[in-house]
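Issue 218. Parser rejects a valid record. Input:
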Amino acid sequence: MFDILAAGCLLLCEEAPLIRETLNGCGIKEFRGPAEATKAAKAALVDGVAEGLLAANRDIALLEHSFTRRMAEILALAG
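Output the parser choked on:
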């Protein structure tokens, strides 16, 4: 999911525990089940996304969610 944001793409993701906390500050589209996934994808294609959202998502992903940073956080938690 971080690669999608870092690539400057809109992330469409199924609702999941902690997704909003993990991607705090990112603009994403959440859905439940196949019907909502299709609806979210079509809406993104037809309506587009707010100007600057994809660039902001990319900046957040590169700054906050790099592999190096995430591994450092995991290792710090592991002691």
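Fixed in the parser; the record now loads. Helices lie at 2-6, 19-22, 33-47, 53-64, 67-78.
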